[in-house]
Design goal:
The structure is a homodimer of 251-residue chains.
Chain A (H helix, E strand, L loop, with lengths): L1 E6 L3 H11 L4 E7 L14 E2 L10 E4 L3 H10 L6 E4 L14 E7 L16 E5 L2 H13 L4 E3 L2 H31 L8 H9 L6 H4 L3 H4 L2 H10 L3 H17 L3
Protein backbone atom coordinates (compact mmCIF):
# COMPACT_ATOMS: atom_id res chain seq x y z
CA UNK A 1 0.00 0.00 0.00
CA UNK A 2 1.45 3.37 -1.01
CA UNK A 3 0.36 6.10 1.38
CA UNK A 4 0.03 9.55 -0.11
CA UNK A 5 -0.57 13.11 0.96
CA UNK A 6 -1.88 15.58 -1.63
CA UNK A 7 -1.00 19.25 -1.16
CA UNK A 8 -3.37 21.52 -3.01
CA UNK A 9 -7.11 21.45 -3.66
CA UNK A 10 -7.54 22.69 -7.23
CA UNK A 11 -8.54 21.01 -10.45
CA UNK A 12 -5.59 18.61 -10.72
CA UNK A 13 -5.59 17.82 -6.99
CA UNK A 14 -9.23 16.78 -7.29
CA UNK A 15 -8.64 14.58 -10.33
CA UNK A 16 -5.66 12.89 -8.66
CA UNK A 17 -7.59 12.41 -5.43
CA UNK A 18 -10.45 10.77 -7.29
CA UNK A 19 -8.30 8.33 -9.24
CA UNK A 20 -6.02 7.47 -6.29
CA UNK A 21 -8.97 6.74 -4.04
CA UNK A 22 -10.47 4.44 -6.68
CA UNK A 23 -7.24 2.48 -7.09
CA UNK A 24 -6.23 -0.58 -5.12
CA UNK A 25 -2.81 -0.31 -3.53
CA UNK A 26 -2.99 3.47 -3.17
CA UNK A 27 -4.23 5.36 -0.14
CA UNK A 28 -4.67 9.11 0.20
CA UNK A 29 -4.11 9.59 3.93
CA UNK A 30 -4.48 13.38 3.93
CA UNK A 31 -5.14 16.45 1.82
CA UNK A 32 -3.57 19.77 2.72
CA UNK A 33 -4.68 23.18 1.56
CA UNK A 34 -3.96 26.70 2.81
CA UNK A 35 -7.63 27.53 3.13
CA UNK A 36 -10.31 25.32 4.64
CA UNK A 37 -12.95 26.26 2.09
CA UNK A 38 -11.51 24.39 -0.86
CA UNK A 39 -11.10 21.25 1.24
CA UNK A 40 -14.79 20.33 1.30
CA UNK A 41 -14.29 18.24 -1.87
CA UNK A 42 -12.00 15.90 0.08
CA UNK A 43 -14.03 15.33 3.21
CA UNK A 44 -13.92 11.55 2.97
CA UNK A 45 -10.28 11.91 4.00
CA UNK A 46 -8.30 13.64 6.74
CA UNK A 47 -7.69 17.23 5.73
CA UNK A 48 -5.58 20.02 7.19
CA UNK A 49 -4.73 23.65 6.62
CA UNK A 50 -1.50 23.43 8.62
CA UNK A 51 1.75 22.07 7.19
CA UNK A 52 2.80 21.28 10.75
CA UNK A 53 0.02 18.73 11.02
CA UNK A 54 1.03 16.74 7.96
CA UNK A 55 0.81 12.99 8.51
CA UNK A 56 3.55 10.56 7.66
CA UNK A 57 3.32 9.12 4.13
CA UNK A 58 5.38 7.46 1.37
CA UNK A 59 4.92 10.40 -0.96
CA UNK A 60 3.83 14.04 -0.81
CA UNK A 61 2.32 15.27 -4.06
CA UNK A 62 2.29 19.03 -4.51
CA UNK A 63 -0.49 20.01 -6.95
CA UNK A 64 -0.58 23.80 -6.75
CA UNK A 65 0.15 26.71 -9.11
CA UNK A 66 3.77 26.85 -10.28
CA UNK A 67 4.64 29.97 -8.31
CA UNK A 68 3.48 28.41 -5.04
CA UNK A 69 5.49 25.18 -5.29
CA UNK A 70 8.77 26.42 -3.82
CA UNK A 71 7.13 28.12 -0.84
CA UNK A 72 5.29 24.94 0.19
CA UNK A 73 8.33 22.70 -0.36
CA UNK A 74 10.49 25.03 1.74
CA UNK A 75 8.06 25.02 4.63
CA UNK A 76 7.64 21.24 4.91
CA UNK A 77 8.45 20.34 8.54
CA UNK A 78 10.35 17.14 7.72
CA UNK A 79 13.36 15.91 5.75
CA UNK A 80 14.37 12.97 3.58
CA UNK A 81 10.84 12.12 2.50
CA UNK A 82 9.71 11.83 -1.15
CA UNK A 83 8.20 15.12 -2.32
CA UNK A 84 7.07 15.59 -5.93
CA UNK A 85 5.40 18.36 -7.85
CA UNK A 86 3.03 17.97 -10.80
CA UNK A 87 4.03 20.90 -12.99
CA UNK A 88 4.94 20.78 -16.67
CA UNK A 89 7.22 23.76 -16.59
CA UNK A 90 8.80 23.91 -13.12
CA UNK A 91 12.18 22.26 -12.65
CA UNK A 92 12.49 19.44 -10.14
CA UNK A 93 15.06 21.62 -8.37
CA UNK A 94 12.38 24.07 -7.38
CA UNK A 95 11.69 21.61 -4.58
CA UNK A 96 13.86 22.06 -1.47
CA UNK A 97 16.71 19.56 -1.34
CA UNK A 98 16.11 18.71 2.32
CA UNK A 99 13.70 16.09 0.93
CA UNK A 100 14.02 13.46 -1.82
CA UNK A 101 12.64 15.10 -4.93
CA UNK A 102 10.63 14.12 -7.96
CA UNK A 103 8.10 15.14 -10.60
CA UNK A 104 4.79 13.48 -11.44
CA UNK A 105 3.46 15.42 -14.43
CA UNK A 106 0.30 14.27 -16.23
CA UNK A 107 0.45 15.64 -19.77
CA UNK A 108 -3.19 16.40 -20.49
CA UNK A 109 -5.67 19.23 -20.42
CA UNK A 110 -8.00 18.99 -17.41
CA UNK A 111 -11.46 20.44 -17.41
CA UNK A 112 -13.15 21.07 -14.09
CA UNK A 113 -15.94 18.62 -13.48
CA UNK A 114 -15.21 16.52 -16.58
CA UNK A 115 -14.21 13.00 -15.55
CA UNK A 116 -10.71 12.06 -16.57
CA UNK A 117 -9.57 8.69 -17.88
CA UNK A 118 -6.04 8.29 -16.54
CA UNK A 119 -5.40 5.27 -18.75
CA UNK A 120 -5.23 7.78 -21.60
CA UNK A 121 -2.94 10.23 -19.85
CA UNK A 122 0.83 9.94 -20.23
CA UNK A 123 2.76 10.62 -17.04
CA UNK A 124 6.19 12.25 -17.18
CA UNK A 125 8.22 11.00 -14.26
CA UNK A 126 11.49 12.25 -12.82
CA UNK A 127 13.27 11.60 -9.53
CA UNK A 128 16.54 12.55 -7.92
CA UNK A 129 17.07 9.01 -6.65
CA UNK A 130 16.65 5.81 -8.61
CA UNK A 131 14.71 3.99 -5.89
CA UNK A 132 12.11 6.74 -5.84
CA UNK A 133 11.49 6.34 -9.56
CA UNK A 134 10.10 2.88 -8.77
CA UNK A 135 7.56 4.41 -6.41
CA UNK A 136 6.34 6.88 -9.04
CA UNK A 137 6.26 4.12 -11.64
CA UNK A 138 4.19 1.91 -9.29
CA UNK A 139 1.66 4.70 -8.87
CA UNK A 140 1.50 5.27 -12.65
CA UNK A 141 1.05 1.53 -13.26
CA UNK A 142 -1.60 1.27 -10.57
CA UNK A 143 -3.78 3.95 -12.16
CA UNK A 144 -3.16 2.49 -15.63
CA UNK A 145 -1.24 5.40 -17.12
CA UNK A 146 1.59 5.12 -19.60
CA UNK A 147 4.64 6.65 -18.00
CA UNK A 148 7.88 8.03 -19.37
CA UNK A 149 11.18 8.95 -17.77
CA UNK A 150 11.51 12.63 -18.63
CA UNK A 151 14.15 15.06 -17.39
CA UNK A 152 13.30 18.61 -16.33
CA UNK A 153 14.76 19.96 -19.58
CA UNK A 154 12.77 17.46 -21.67
CA UNK A 155 9.65 18.29 -19.72
CA UNK A 156 10.17 21.94 -20.52
CA UNK A 157 10.30 21.05 -24.23
CA UNK A 158 7.13 18.99 -23.86
CA UNK A 159 5.38 21.86 -22.14
CA UNK A 160 6.14 24.19 -25.06
CA UNK A 161 5.08 21.47 -27.49
CA UNK A 162 1.83 21.10 -25.58
CA UNK A 163 1.13 24.79 -26.12
CA UNK A 164 1.43 24.24 -29.87
CA UNK A 165 -0.75 21.11 -30.10
CA UNK A 166 -3.31 22.20 -27.54
CA UNK A 167 -3.50 26.00 -27.03
CA UNK A 168 -2.55 26.96 -30.57
CA UNK A 169 -4.54 24.26 -32.37
CA UNK A 170 -7.55 25.26 -30.32
CA UNK A 171 -6.96 28.86 -31.35
CA UNK A 172 -7.00 27.70 -35.01
CA UNK A 173 -10.44 26.20 -34.28
CA UNK A 174 -11.47 29.48 -32.69
CA UNK A 175 -10.47 31.49 -35.75
CA UNK A 176 -12.34 29.06 -38.01
CA UNK A 177 -15.36 29.45 -35.75
CA UNK A 178 -15.17 33.23 -36.11
CA UNK A 179 -14.87 33.04 -39.89
CA UNK A 180 -17.72 30.58 -40.29
CA UNK A 181 -19.99 32.54 -37.95
CA UNK A 182 -19.28 35.75 -39.84
CA UNK A 183 -20.46 33.94 -42.98
CA UNK A 184 -23.52 32.28 -41.41
CA UNK A 185 -22.06 28.82 -41.80
CA UNK A 186 -22.54 26.36 -38.91
CA UNK A 187 -19.17 25.57 -37.29
CA UNK A 188 -20.22 21.92 -36.92
CA UNK A 189 -19.54 21.40 -40.65
CA UNK A 190 -15.88 21.58 -39.68
CA UNK A 191 -16.09 19.05 -36.83
CA UNK A 192 -15.32 15.96 -38.91
CA UNK A 193 -12.32 17.67 -40.49
CA UNK A 194 -10.98 18.61 -37.05
CA UNK A 195 -11.38 14.99 -35.89
CA UNK A 196 -9.77 13.54 -38.99
CA UNK A 197 -6.83 15.93 -38.75
CA UNK A 198 -6.19 14.78 -35.17
CA UNK A 199 -6.76 11.09 -36.02
CA UNK A 200 -4.20 11.13 -38.81
CA UNK A 201 -1.28 11.43 -36.35
CA UNK A 202 -1.82 7.78 -35.44
CA UNK A 203 -0.93 6.63 -38.94
CA UNK A 204 1.15 9.44 -40.45
CA UNK A 205 3.73 11.86 -39.11
CA UNK A 206 2.51 15.47 -39.25
CA UNK A 207 5.18 16.01 -41.88
CA UNK A 208 3.60 13.36 -44.12
CA UNK A 209 0.03 14.36 -43.30
CA UNK A 210 0.40 17.98 -44.42
CA UNK A 211 -1.79 19.11 -47.33
CA UNK A 212 -3.10 22.43 -48.63
CA UNK A 213 -2.15 25.47 -50.67
CA UNK A 214 0.92 26.40 -48.58
CA UNK A 215 2.48 22.99 -49.11
CA UNK A 216 1.55 22.90 -52.81
CA UNK A 217 2.79 26.44 -53.34
CA UNK A 218 -0.64 27.33 -54.74
CA UNK A 219 -0.34 31.13 -54.67
CA UNK A 220 -3.69 31.72 -56.36
CA UNK A 221 -5.59 29.99 -53.54
CA UNK A 222 -3.43 31.68 -50.90
CA UNK A 223 -4.24 35.10 -52.37
CA UNK A 224 -7.92 34.24 -52.54
CA UNK A 225 -7.91 33.20 -48.87
CA UNK A 226 -6.11 36.36 -47.76
CA UNK A 227 -8.66 38.44 -49.64
CA UNK A 228 -11.49 36.55 -47.96
CA UNK A 229 -10.13 37.16 -44.42
CA UNK A 230 -11.52 40.30 -42.79
CA UNK A 231 -9.36 40.68 -39.69
CA UNK A 232 -5.78 41.86 -39.93
CA UNK A 233 -4.62 39.46 -37.22
CA UNK A 234 -6.10 36.55 -39.17
CA UNK A 235 -4.27 37.69 -42.30
CA UNK A 236 -1.04 37.94 -40.33
CA UNK A 237 -1.44 34.44 -38.89
CA UNK A 238 -2.38 33.02 -42.29
CA UNK A 239 0.68 34.62 -43.88
CA UNK A 240 3.16 33.53 -41.21
CA UNK A 241 1.93 29.93 -41.03
CA UNK A 242 1.86 29.70 -44.82
CA UNK A 243 5.50 30.85 -44.88
CA UNK A 244 6.44 28.35 -42.22
CA UNK A 245 4.78 25.45 -44.06
CA UNK A 246 6.37 26.53 -47.36
CA UNK A 247 9.75 26.58 -45.64
CA UNK A 248 9.17 23.12 -44.15
CA UNK A 249 8.68 21.74 -47.67
CA UNK A 250 11.62 23.61 -49.16
CA UNK A 251 9.66 26.19 -51.16
CA UNK B 1 -31.89 5.42 -60.30
CA UNK B 2 -29.65 8.45 -60.65
CA UNK B 3 -27.25 8.03 -63.56
CA UNK B 4 -23.93 9.79 -63.16
CA UNK B 5 -20.83 10.56 -65.17
CA UNK B 6 -17.61 11.38 -63.32
CA UNK B 7 -15.10 13.64 -65.05
CA UNK B 8 -11.64 13.24 -63.61
CA UNK B 9 -9.63 10.28 -62.33
CA UNK B 10 -7.73 11.58 -59.31
CA UNK B 11 -8.03 11.00 -55.60
CA UNK B 12 -11.50 12.47 -55.11
CA UNK B 13 -12.84 10.96 -58.35
CA UNK B 14 -11.76 7.54 -57.09
CA UNK B 15 -13.35 7.97 -53.67
CA UNK B 16 -16.62 9.19 -55.23
CA UNK B 17 -16.61 6.36 -57.75
CA UNK B 18 -16.16 3.81 -54.98
CA UNK B 19 -18.95 5.10 -52.79
CA UNK B 20 -21.39 5.70 -55.67
CA UNK B 21 -20.87 2.20 -57.02
CA UNK B 22 -21.55 0.73 -53.57
CA UNK B 23 -24.79 2.67 -53.16
CA UNK B 24 -28.22 1.53 -54.19
CA UNK B 25 -30.06 4.02 -56.38
CA UNK B 26 -26.87 5.46 -57.87
CA UNK B 27 -25.20 4.34 -61.08
CA UNK B 28 -21.92 5.57 -62.48
CA UNK B 29 -22.47 5.09 -66.21
CA UNK B 30 -19.12 6.49 -67.35
CA UNK B 31 -15.83 7.98 -66.21
CA UNK B 32 -14.03 10.53 -68.38
CA UNK B 33 -10.40 11.48 -68.17
CA UNK B 34 -8.08 13.30 -70.56
CA UNK B 35 -5.53 10.50 -70.47
CA UNK B 36 -6.25 6.80 -70.71
CA UNK B 37 -3.64 5.80 -68.20
CA UNK B 38 -5.39 7.07 -65.09
CA UNK B 39 -8.62 5.35 -66.14
CA UNK B 40 -7.48 1.83 -65.23
CA UNK B 41 -8.91 2.29 -61.73
CA UNK B 42 -12.40 2.55 -63.21
CA UNK B 43 -12.40 -0.37 -65.59
CA UNK B 44 -15.56 -1.94 -64.18
CA UNK B 45 -17.35 0.94 -65.92
CA UNK B 46 -17.43 2.52 -69.36
CA UNK B 47 -14.56 4.99 -69.67
CA UNK B 48 -13.61 7.56 -72.27
CA UNK B 49 -10.91 10.10 -73.03
CA UNK B 50 -13.14 12.09 -75.39
CA UNK B 51 -15.70 14.63 -74.21
CA UNK B 52 -17.54 14.05 -77.47
CA UNK B 53 -18.27 10.48 -76.44
CA UNK B 54 -19.92 11.37 -73.15
CA UNK B 55 -23.03 9.30 -72.43
CA UNK B 56 -26.33 10.76 -71.37
CA UNK B 57 -26.76 11.02 -67.58
CA UNK B 58 -28.71 12.84 -64.85
CA UNK B 59 -25.60 14.52 -63.51
CA UNK B 60 -22.02 15.21 -64.60
CA UNK B 61 -19.61 15.51 -61.69
CA UNK B 62 -16.37 17.32 -62.44
CA UNK B 63 -13.67 16.20 -59.99
CA UNK B 64 -10.50 17.78 -61.34
CA UNK B 65 -8.02 20.43 -60.19
CA UNK B 66 -9.58 23.89 -59.77
CA UNK B 67 -7.76 25.41 -62.73
CA UNK B 68 -9.06 22.71 -65.11
CA UNK B 69 -12.76 23.01 -64.21
CA UNK B 70 -13.69 25.87 -66.56
CA UNK B 71 -11.95 24.34 -69.58
CA UNK B 72 -13.85 21.05 -69.22
CA UNK B 73 -17.19 22.75 -68.53
CA UNK B 74 -16.76 24.97 -71.62
CA UNK B 75 -16.05 22.02 -73.88
CA UNK B 76 -19.02 19.87 -72.89
CA UNK B 77 -20.88 19.01 -76.13
CA UNK B 78 -24.39 19.40 -74.69
CA UNK B 79 -26.61 21.99 -73.01
CA UNK B 80 -29.19 22.16 -70.24
CA UNK B 81 -27.87 19.18 -68.31
CA UNK B 82 -26.86 19.23 -64.64
CA UNK B 83 -23.11 19.81 -64.31
CA UNK B 84 -21.47 20.19 -60.89
CA UNK B 85 -17.95 20.65 -59.67
CA UNK B 86 -16.50 19.41 -56.37
CA UNK B 87 -14.18 22.26 -55.43
CA UNK B 88 -14.09 24.09 -52.12
CA UNK B 89 -12.79 27.33 -53.54
CA UNK B 90 -14.12 27.64 -57.09
CA UNK B 91 -17.33 29.58 -57.61
CA UNK B 92 -20.30 27.79 -59.13
CA UNK B 93 -20.15 30.38 -61.92
CA UNK B 94 -16.88 28.93 -63.13
CA UNK B 95 -19.10 26.37 -64.85
CA UNK B 96 -20.41 27.43 -68.28
CA UNK B 97 -23.99 28.65 -68.15
CA UNK B 98 -25.06 26.61 -71.16
CA UNK B 99 -25.73 23.84 -68.62
CA UNK B 100 -27.60 23.77 -65.28
CA UNK B 101 -24.95 24.34 -62.65
CA UNK B 102 -24.18 23.15 -59.16
CA UNK B 103 -21.54 22.30 -56.58
CA UNK B 104 -21.06 19.06 -54.67
CA UNK B 105 -18.19 19.74 -52.25
CA UNK B 106 -17.18 17.14 -49.65
CA UNK B 107 -15.47 18.99 -46.80
CA UNK B 108 -12.82 16.53 -45.72
CA UNK B 109 -9.19 15.69 -46.24
CA UNK B 110 -8.73 12.71 -48.54
CA UNK B 111 -5.72 10.47 -48.37
CA UNK B 112 -4.92 8.31 -51.38
CA UNK B 113 -5.63 4.66 -50.70
CA UNK B 114 -7.20 5.30 -47.27
CA UNK B 115 -10.86 4.21 -47.29
CA UNK B 116 -13.27 7.06 -46.69
CA UNK B 117 -16.44 6.89 -44.61
CA UNK B 118 -18.84 9.26 -46.36
CA UNK B 119 -21.29 9.10 -43.47
CA UNK B 120 -18.76 11.26 -41.62
CA UNK B 121 -18.22 13.74 -44.43
CA UNK B 122 -20.35 16.87 -44.64
CA UNK B 123 -21.37 17.81 -48.18
CA UNK B 124 -21.74 21.45 -49.17
CA UNK B 125 -24.38 21.69 -51.88
CA UNK B 126 -25.29 24.54 -54.20
CA UNK B 127 -27.37 24.70 -57.39
CA UNK B 128 -28.56 27.38 -59.76
CA UNK B 129 -32.02 25.81 -59.95
CA UNK B 130 -34.13 24.63 -57.05
CA UNK B 131 -35.13 21.33 -58.66
CA UNK B 132 -31.50 20.40 -59.11
CA UNK B 133 -30.85 20.85 -55.40
CA UNK B 134 -33.14 17.88 -54.79
CA UNK B 135 -30.98 15.71 -57.02
CA UNK B 136 -27.80 16.62 -55.12
CA UNK B 137 -29.61 16.11 -51.82
CA UNK B 138 -30.77 12.65 -52.95
CA UNK B 139 -27.22 11.68 -53.76
CA UNK B 140 -25.97 12.97 -50.38
CA UNK B 141 -28.75 11.10 -48.57
CA UNK B 142 -28.08 7.92 -50.54
CA UNK B 143 -24.42 7.82 -49.49
CA UNK B 144 -25.34 8.75 -45.93
CA UNK B 145 -23.64 12.14 -45.77
CA UNK B 146 -24.88 15.15 -43.84
CA UNK B 147 -25.49 17.89 -46.37
CA UNK B 148 -25.76 21.64 -46.12
CA UNK B 149 -27.01 24.33 -48.51
CA UNK B 150 -23.94 26.51 -48.90
CA UNK B 151 -23.50 29.45 -51.28
CA UNK B 152 -20.29 30.01 -53.24
CA UNK B 153 -19.33 32.83 -50.88
CA UNK B 154 -20.00 30.71 -47.79
CA UNK B 155 -18.04 27.85 -49.32
CA UNK B 156 -15.11 30.19 -49.82
CA UNK B 157 -15.26 31.05 -46.10
CA UNK B 158 -15.39 27.36 -45.23
CA UNK B 159 -12.41 26.66 -47.42
CA UNK B 160 -10.32 29.24 -45.57
CA UNK B 161 -11.61 27.90 -42.25
CA UNK B 162 -10.58 24.42 -43.32
CA UNK B 163 -7.03 25.66 -43.86
CA UNK B 164 -6.98 26.84 -40.23
CA UNK B 165 -8.41 23.68 -38.66
CA UNK B 166 -6.62 21.23 -40.93
CA UNK B 167 -3.45 22.63 -42.54
CA UNK B 168 -2.50 24.97 -39.72
CA UNK B 169 -3.40 22.64 -36.84
CA UNK B 170 -1.37 19.93 -38.52
CA UNK B 171 1.51 22.38 -38.78
CA UNK B 172 1.22 22.96 -35.00
CA UNK B 173 1.61 19.18 -34.60
CA UNK B 174 4.61 19.31 -36.93
CA UNK B 175 6.33 22.01 -34.88
CA UNK B 176 5.67 20.07 -31.67
CA UNK B 177 7.15 17.00 -33.37
CA UNK B 178 10.28 18.98 -34.24
CA UNK B 179 10.65 20.33 -30.70
CA UNK B 180 10.14 16.97 -29.06
CA UNK B 181 12.54 15.22 -31.44
CA UNK B 182 15.20 17.85 -30.81
CA UNK B 183 14.86 17.03 -27.09
CA UNK B 184 14.77 13.24 -27.49
CA UNK B 185 11.20 13.00 -26.32
CA UNK B 186 8.87 10.61 -28.16
CA UNK B 187 6.17 12.55 -30.01
CA UNK B 188 3.60 9.90 -29.03
CA UNK B 189 3.49 11.41 -25.52
CA UNK B 190 1.56 14.26 -27.15
CA UNK B 191 -0.96 12.04 -28.98
CA UNK B 192 -3.57 11.93 -26.20
CA UNK B 193 -3.42 15.71 -25.81
CA UNK B 194 -3.95 16.17 -29.56
CA UNK B 195 -6.96 13.84 -29.42
CA UNK B 196 -8.47 15.49 -26.37
CA UNK B 197 -8.03 18.97 -27.88
CA UNK B 198 -9.96 17.85 -30.96
CA UNK B 199 -12.59 15.98 -28.92
CA UNK B 200 -13.40 19.01 -26.80
CA UNK B 201 -15.10 20.82 -29.70
CA UNK B 202 -18.03 18.43 -29.32
CA UNK B 203 -18.82 19.75 -25.85
CA UNK B 204 -17.29 23.22 -25.68
CA UNK B 205 -16.85 26.06 -28.15
CA UNK B 206 -13.17 26.71 -28.95
CA UNK B 207 -13.62 30.01 -27.13
CA UNK B 208 -14.62 28.20 -23.93
CA UNK B 209 -12.08 25.40 -24.36
CA UNK B 210 -9.05 27.69 -24.52
CA UNK B 211 -6.45 27.29 -21.77
CA UNK B 212 -2.77 28.10 -21.36
CA UNK B 213 -0.34 30.92 -20.58
CA UNK B 214 -1.53 33.25 -23.38
CA UNK B 215 -5.10 33.17 -22.09
CA UNK B 216 -4.02 33.51 -18.45
CA UNK B 217 -1.60 36.32 -19.29
CA UNK B 218 1.17 34.28 -17.65
CA UNK B 219 4.17 36.23 -18.95
CA UNK B 220 6.71 34.22 -16.95
CA UNK B 221 5.74 30.96 -18.69
CA UNK B 222 5.56 32.72 -22.07
CA UNK B 223 9.11 34.05 -21.63
CA UNK B 224 10.32 30.63 -20.53
CA UNK B 225 8.79 29.02 -23.63
CA UNK B 226 10.28 31.61 -25.98
CA UNK B 227 13.69 31.01 -24.41
CA UNK B 228 13.29 27.26 -24.90
CA UNK B 229 12.44 27.56 -28.63
CA UNK B 230 15.51 27.30 -30.89
CA UNK B 231 14.16 28.32 -34.28
CA UNK B 232 13.31 31.92 -35.08
CA UNK B 233 10.23 30.96 -37.06
CA UNK B 234 8.91 29.01 -34.06
CA UNK B 235 9.47 32.03 -31.81
CA UNK B 236 7.64 34.24 -34.34
CA UNK B 237 4.68 31.87 -34.50
CA UNK B 238 4.59 31.51 -30.71
CA UNK B 239 4.62 35.28 -30.28
CA UNK B 240 1.94 36.03 -32.88
CA UNK B 241 -0.46 33.32 -31.71
CA UNK B 242 0.06 34.34 -28.08
CA UNK B 243 -0.85 37.93 -29.04
CA UNK B 244 -3.91 36.74 -30.92
CA UNK B 245 -5.13 34.63 -27.99
CA UNK B 246 -4.47 37.47 -25.54
CA UNK B 247 -6.49 39.79 -27.78
CA UNK B 248 -9.33 37.27 -27.98
CA UNK B 249 -9.61 37.34 -24.19
CA UNK B 250 -9.30 41.10 -23.92
CA UNK B 251 -5.78 41.26 -22.48
Amino acid sequence: MIQMVILGAGNLAQHLYTVFRATEGLEVVQVYNRSQKALSYFNATNTTTSLKELLEADIYIIAVADDAIAAIANKLPFTDRLVVHTSGSASMHMLHKKNRRGVFYPLQTFTKGVKVDFTKIPLCLETGEKADFKILKSIADAIGSNSYKISSEQRRALHVSAVFVNNFSNHMYRIAHEISEANNVPFEILHPLIQETANKIHTLTPYMAQTGPAKRGDQKTIDDHLEKLDKDIHKEIYTLLTQSIAKTYGR
